[in-house]
Amino acid sequence: MASYRGGLYIQEQISSILQELGPNDELVIVDDASPDNTIDVISKITDPRVRLIRNASNSGYVRTFEKAILASRGEFIFLSDQDDVWISGRVHQMLEGLQTSAMVATNFAMLGGGPRPWIPPLKSTMDSRRLANLLGIMIGYRAYYGCGMAFRRELIPVVTPIPEYVRESHDLWFAICGNMAQSIAHLEAPSLLRRLHDQNETPSGFRSLPRIAAARVMLGRLLLEASRRLRRRQGG
To answer: At the fourth CATH level, which superfamily is domain 2-235?
Structure first.
């Protein structure tokens, strides 16, 4: 988990995560120099499975997630936002998918009900449609959200370091790696309740044409980078 200005909602999210974890699991939280009471809220949680790492200065949520991934010690790495709520059974269903795939991607429902964003939900039939998934990522209609993803430790050398030009949409980088590795499972059942509010760190809504064009260029570079890393991994 990457935290930043999360004091309002992070305690509820941590509670939902700890209920899903076993006694030997861990929750790695890297705080990105929050100026609010986020650290105080986390520090009051006495569960020994919570590991808090503090950035000395703000580095942005992409680098903070990367730091949390590299600090993790488990075989299976689950990504989490600071302001959502995990649904009971999330870990079990995602671990089942990770038995046969190196990465899993799941859907989410909206906290408090209400409609999802317009992007179509993931379906299990997408497992074998790698090229269609990559095309969907490039066009912008494949619904990959980091908060609903997990992967096996073996993928860490592929997904990290996150290319330095990635300032947002790190979840699409992970999805590109999983699809190009031909080892990503799409689970249809929601695994979390997503909270939308004015302080969400990830971008929302429609973007300007220049930003859309810049994002497509970035995604093209990421396709090439993922291919390079996977070839190197296979050669090694």
So the answer is: Spore Coat Polysaccharide Biosynthesis Protein SpsA; Chain A (3.90.550.10)
